[in-house]
Amino acid sequence: MKREWTKEDKELAEAGYEHLAQQKAQGQKGGEMKLDNVDVHEHKLSFKDLEAELDTALDAKDPEQSPGLSTDEAKARLSRYGPNILTPPKKKSALRKYWDCLMTMFNILLIIAGILEYILLGVNFKDNFPNTYLGGILIGVAFLNAFIEFYQLQKSEAILASFLAMIPPSCRVVRDGTLMTIPAADLVKGDIVLVRTGDKTPADLVIFASSDLKVDNSSLTGESEPQERFARPDGVQSRPVEAENLLFNSTLVVNGEGWGVVVRTGDHTMIGQIAALTGSETGKKSPLAVEIGRFVMMISAIAIVFAVVFFVVGITTAYKGKGEQTVTFAVSILVAFVPEGLPSVVTLLLSIAAKRMAAQNVLVKDLQGVETLGMYCALCLLTLLATDKTGTLTRNQMTVTNLWSGLRMFSAFQSNNDSEDTEAFTIGAPGMREMVDVAALNSHVKFDRTDLPFEQRKILGDATETGLIRFAGKYIASWDEYQKRHRRVFEIPFNSSNKWALVIMEKAHEHGLLTSYIKGAPERVLAKCSTYLKDGQEVPISEEFRAEYDKAYDYMASRGHRVIACAQKLLKSDIYDASYEFSKTDANYPSSEYCFCGLISLEDPPKHGVREAIGTLRLAGIKVMMVTGDHPKTAEAIARKINLVLGETKESLSKKTGRPIEEIYDDEVDAIVIHGDDIDSLQGWQWDQIFSKNEIVFARTSPQHKLEIVKRAQALGHIVGVTGDGVNDSPALKKADLGIAMNISGSDVSKEAANMILLDDNFASTVKGVAEGRQIFVNLKRSIQYTISHSTPEVIPQLLYVVVPVPLPLSAILILVIDLGFELFVALSFAWDKPETKDGLMRMAPRKPVNDRSITSLKRRALRRTKTLRRDPETNEIVQPTRLSRWMATIKAPFTRKFWEDALETSDNETLVDGKLLSYAYLEAGLIEMAGGLVAYFVVFLKNGFTPGDLRRAQSALSDSPSITYFTKSSPDFTNSRGQVISASKQVNALAQAQSIVYLSIFIIQCFNVFAVKAKFRPPFGKSVIGNYYNFAGILAGACLGMFIIYTPPLHVVFGGTDKLSPLYWLIPAAFGVLLLVWASIRVVLMRKSIEQSRVKDIKGLMMFPTMRTMSMRSKH
């Protein structure tokens, strides 16, 4: 039954895309004035004048024979004019970067608190003298935090610079009459350069020969459509930006090829002269940075609220109007709540991860410190990976396997997979010579050297053409003579829209002098044919032929081979004579009535490790789909080899059961193969149906289709990763949340568009990236969980001090020592944590999974947002709200029902700081630590003669009239409940011991908490939990610091410790530490069911072993 696209579907599909057209229009307007003020004039010169001005030699008729510059002359010009490098954009100064690191919420709170302490010092120097140390430490901590973050940012940028140096841009240039590849930085004025589809223009070039050359100037001019460029022998008298013979540095070649002479390099190029267009640092925050920022603001707000509340309570109860002491007390509450070391910990954790990823041959581009390290967060969040096939999943090493012509199938190399009626290939068989001619003459390959025999030459071209030429070259006696004998008259190169290439050659036959050859996608080529070649004769295409053609096509494609069709047309001299003007613009070339020569299949085997990598990603809950330009049968066959498709499609189920496709319901199949021709007509509900499948293949797609697929997936809430290596992948790579390009086989265009580059072209590095991203998230979460666990044992004793009251269990300065002393060492050590179980993380669903509930929620919100947008009544364009109206809407939002419905809506998402983490830190581990600290506190006081009642009575004396202060050197003697008299010195010693044991209790229990926070899948025991030796190094460093502060007499003036505290008291917090580990073990059991539910179920049929071809190749080494 056909379902109609509802109004809701239509509105939802459009929601979120309206701004794109507006941005495009603004981009075009922005650059117009700047583009007019540049000094480029060489495009106005004729070829002869150009040669004279640049002192070079070019051959417009046969550009491959251009002499170019000599090596010595090029070196001289390079030393004279400098390298072809743009001056980097102006970056923030080191001072500005440090200032940005300092101006974070936590640091600002610390600085304000420190300044307050010094203000109190000015008000009453004698009573507030201890605040000298506290104020200085608070401010010093803020500056130290900023320095650690700043230092790591500088190191991260250095890592990026070193890795970018490993992939310098290169170009093809003619030197000494030989075509060679050199670094683009070595180009000089006068060099002859060849640019092809997928290249990034290395300098400003004047074109002197081209073939269907089109460039993407959008980065420079804002023009959205590719611009055609061709040679103009007499030059053009227009503005440089409108010149049809000029290519600009850094623009992208999206079609055809061209030969040009370098007229400008480096800062003298068009883009070099327009300083504003070279870009500057951006401040876009990653999802991870947003989550951390939200957490920081939440904790800061809680800290400020509690500090104010405690100030009010303190000044009305314990301190009775003593403002200076109350402010110090409020500062201690603020310090207890704020995890001062967290910014440094986050920065260091992510920087350590960056180094690890760099070692895995994964390069994150445009790294501006921590913010773009959110790319690892994107890897952690990834829910859908759309991958190209050729060069990404396969090796991009094409080998001709079969040929079909005249209704006969031939095998080009020995194979056990061919059927019995497949004949061995011979060049003398009918139709084979014509097939070889089409493969050899309709080609755009170049050679690195032409002075070597054909077999020893390196072919410069795409994998398909390279495979065809390697095959055809075996059956051509003299390749160079053969090419010269058949001169090219006209051509239309292959592009991803046409999916065919056409060439007209001087090749004589009995009816004329010219022959037209066409090759490309079989269905496109067959549509241009009316006859087929059989036994050397042209026979009209019949239904019998079409049936045999479908059978042969299916035979080739079902083996995962790429299939190319060949056709020819013998042009008659009475129509196409030597003076005939062929033209592409008005379609003045033969485009129909061709004779179908046959089919050629090429095998491109999967890369090593791809099958296992895709299986691992699928077990990690990431939906992997193939988006390729190949035929659906070829794509499906490859997908079945590499774990991408395991289940039945409607077509395969129909074939297996004999039922018509129309009678098979969608819920009967779990896999789907979509033809690109169907994409444009898909309705909203059909997209939902497609993405509901676990195994998806899109075939015969264009670049526009790939982009549309990414947009549709993102509209459903997917975090989309795209892998690709070709120019046709670049729009999707740019739009994706995480664009991943290949370094070795990837085009300059794809690398330009991607966020991440796999330096070794190993698809399996994506798996390493996902695992690393997830581990980073877990380690960061553990670190935060550990760090904020001590807030409860720091804050609750302060509350008892005011409410009960009892002597202050923990001073503000000791709280600072906890947060920035041993806590910092241990929190950093989590960066080196290994996974808790071997495959635990890679068997869990993504932390923001896309399911029916999330999609429904997202659609409802998007639809509501779309309906609230104001539109111009005449043009129906969206009217952007003013800043004031946005502020007002934000203020009003919490008072609306929808706001709270959205906020309280249940979700499967796992955030960095969620309810479970806060519950553990504040209510579970926090309360155990608090209990351990307070028990030790009261035991120490009891041992020194103070019962809890005595403590309350002594502290309450502060509010008596007259006021009596105990626990100071000048205090009067105190008589306890047993009648014992305790002198002032014993009171001071008792308080020092009690505060010291509270400090040490938090440290000791936190040592146990290091291992307790790791318990998610298993109890906190075993090698995986204690295997991180940096944890023990951090604990040792913290222990040394704690012992030094508590037991060193000179430091007692600042920190209030004592060397009289017996180590036997340490056993109390140690017992509570063991209790914490027991609770962590119980918690694992209690949470096992919810963890099991979020674990990805086993996938039946996954093949987690190498392909046979891979295994045989490995066995040779």
Give an overview of the whole structure.
By secondary structure, the chain is of the alpha/beta class. Among the domains are: 44-277, Distorted Sandwich (Calcium-transporting ATPase, cytoplasmic transduction domain A); 362-394 and 607-761, HAD superfamily/HAD-like (Rossmann fold, 3-Layer(aba) Sandwich); 399-603, Calcium-transporting ATPase, cytoplasmic domain N. The protein is 47% helix and 14% strand. It has 41 helices and 29 strands. The strands form five sheets. Strands 10, 11, 12, 15, 16, 17, 18, 19, 20 and 21 form a ten-stranded mixed beta sheet that branches. Strands 8-27-26-25-9-22-24-23 form an eight-stranded mixed beta sheet, sandwiched between helices. The radius of gyration is 37 Å and the shape is elongated.
SSE arrangement:
Elements: H1 7-14, H2 18-36, H3 47-54, H4 71-81, H5 94-102, H6 105-123, H7 131-164, E1 170-175, E2 178-183, E3 192-196, E4 204-216, H8 218-221, E5 227-229, E6 246-247, E7 252-264, H9 270-273, H10 287-316, H11 323-337, H12 342-359, E8 362-364, H13 374-381, E9 384-387, E10 399-405, E11 408-411, E12 423-424, H14 432-441, E13 446-447, E14 459-460, H15 463-473, H16 479-485, E15 488-492, E16 500-509, E17 512-520, H17 522-526, E18 529-534, E19 537-540, H18 543-557, E20 562-571, E21 594-603, H19 610-619, E22 623-627, H20 632-641, H21 650-657, E23 671-675, H22 676-679, H23 684-692, E24 695-699, H24 703-715, E25 720-724, H25 730-735, E26 738-742, H26 748-753, E27 756-758, H27 764-788, H28 791-803, H29 812-820, H30 822-829, H31 852-868, H32 883-892, H33 897-903, H34 915-943, H35 948-956, E28 974-975, E29 981-982, H36 984-1012, H37 1023-1026, H38 1029-1047, H39 1052-1055, H40 1067-1094, H41 1108-1115
Parallel strand pairs: 9-22, 9-25, 11-12, 18-21, 22-24, 23-24, 25-26, 26-27
Antiparallel strand pairs: 1-2, 1-3, 3-7, 4-5, 4-6, 4-7, 8-27, 10-11, 10-21, 13-14, 15-16, 16-17, 17-20, 18-19, 20-21, 28-29
Helix pairs in contact: 5-7, 6-7, 6-11, 7-12, 7-29, 10-11, 11-28, 11-29, 12-27, 13-27, 14-15, 19-27, 27-30, 27-34, 28-34, 29-30, 30-38, 34-36, 34-40, 36-38, 36-40
GO cellular component, one term: plasma membrane
Transmembrane segments: 98-121, 133-151, 295-315, 327-350, 370-387, 799-832, 920-942, 997-1017, 1029-1047, 1067-1086
Domain Cation-transporting P-type ATPase N-terminal: 41-122
